[in-house]
Amino acid sequence: MDAITRDAIVACAANGNMEHDFIGQVVKVYENSALVQILEHHADDRMNARELLHQVVISLRQMTVMTPGRPAEEEAAEALESAG
Asked: The whole model's pTM is what?
């Protein structure tokens, strides 16, 4: 499994918020989940996406990387920069 990093394009399985699978871009990665901006969704989920402001937190286990995001090393360097 590819590591899920910020800016990755991911295919996400349907969850409690969305009734159908959808495609999104990772905005922020947490320990076991990620904040995903919804890019493409089923027409039936239009209102769900709108209510969520096109963002949803979803388990890392329920997503598959389609296009890798930023390299993990770049993420770590940026985190050190902002902390210091």
From this structure: 0.82
